[in-house]
Amino acid sequence: MSAEAEVPEDPESIRGDPESILVLKRVARTVSSHLSEGEANVKAEQACFLPCTDDGVPVIGEIPGVNGCYVATGHNSWGILNGPATGAAVAELVLDGQASIVDLSRFSPARFNSSSIVR
User: Fold this and answer.
1) Is the pTM of this model over 0.85?
2) Does residue 29 sit in the same domain as residue 73?
């Protein structure tokens, strides 16, 4: 059900794709007869954006050239699972200057800096 799209300025303008919603409703009916049309009341039909990077790897670390500005994003659908470890690593990074529980070099925001790209 995913698609690539720019995040709109106004979150209220985000709408779910009608075709995707119909597919989800059909799948829900196969899971439980109580989720059939008329039996279950739909309270909302929503869509959301997942934070994804072009290379599929989260961005975790200090922003190059912006002292003291840290990010931890781009986990895609794995944010809830990886959030605690990411939080612990970023806490170490902020407090101690480096993370000891995981090597964050692979996740560095500097990889998107054009001057760090090897050609």
Assistant:
1) no
2) no
